[in-house]
User: Fold this.
Amino acid sequence: MKKNLLYTIYSAVFIGMCLVPSALMPFVKSDTNKEKRKSAEAPRLTDEDGKLNFGFFEDFENYFSDHFAFRQQLVTADGRIKTAVFATSPNKDVIAGKNGWLYYGETLDDYLHINTLSERSVANISHNLDMINDYCEENGAQFVFTVAPNKNSVYPQYMPSHYVESGQSGNYDRLVEAMKSKSYWIDMKETLKNTKSGIPLYHKTDTHWNNMGAYVGHVRLMATLGKEACPAGTSWYTKNNARLGDLAAMIYPAEDAKDTQVYNDYQFTYSYGRTFRRLDDMTITTKCSGKEGSLKMFRDSYGEAILPYMAECFGSAEFSRFVPYELYTVSGSSVIIEIVERNLGDLQKYAPIMPAPETEPDNMISTESYSSDDIIAETETNGGMIHIFGELPPEFFSGSFTEIYISCGGRTFKAFNCFEDKLLNREDEISDRGFSLYLPPEHQLPEDGKITIMAVSSGKTVSADVQL
Assistant:
């Protein structure tokens, strides 16, 4: 009897503990913000059309998984056990490395050199950057382009040993080969790896470089622009628990998972514009008394740490996170584009908003006409300009690189080799056969909506008349 009673009490306690997260769910709120994702919404019995929602139980499962009581505490306990005991991560977006280092899961393909961009894609990116450089020069601006390396590209020694690189070149290496002769290109990975510092240049439990890594990047950028870098003061020092590690927060959401930050004692003098709230604002403007020149910097989250140093060196500066890049606002300034290594493919996705250069293809040897049946071509209006974009079939391409032109209204314009996945309702799809351009503001489409698309490669031109 006593033994059965103990079993009964044990079972009741166990079941009660299992029911606590469910029973207290209405009273103890859960939050997935630290995990960089949106919580699942409450399930509905009917869909938007008022019909029965046959996915109700799946929706309920997702909702419960995100909202049960003490979720953050239980996820954190699971994360601590798996990283400490099994050296694995409970979250696919976080890689648990050696000595407490964490890496972003989306950088794994780059690290392993798999699922790489095609040879044509790399050529497209190089072509697109050349067009940006030409536009900046025509508008009196100096252009510089750089890639912020993934953390495991600079510190591969802390990656788990079971991840072994493939034998082929990765996207970054392929881009270096394509860009090495271009004066506007900066190989930031080489710069960071060759920097001798007793302090790591990246955060241990965060995706990004720290202030020292950003400063190293700043010095290299300013040298390429031919300008004096921001002083670093008299000394560098580290401060513990000074930054929330974004990767640590994803697997230890209940903890105030702080990382170490690096500082110098230089006293900045620049000021922010009125609308400034925080460093991840989409647009930030700054002014610095006594400094000359203007800067337009297109940046991502890596630009947050580098922003103060850049702002200190220009009389006025604007830092933008908008994509596509609004290049039509550029005039008489220094222009920088910074993008993280894992997003290199985006340079073949979103054409900058700028008037397409007018040109006459002079490298046509033979012309071959093609039916427009398989051509995708669409238009929209953006920035006061008509945006023409789409995708060409494989028959338009030969060799590793193809230039694309569009003729309309008696004028011919050069296109960016960009596949606008979102505008074509094919988000996250990759294609190296896209085209995209913005007609100059004064130029309109012909009344009949007809254009001619020409693809030039290896002296051969394939053209097609298209009705928009």
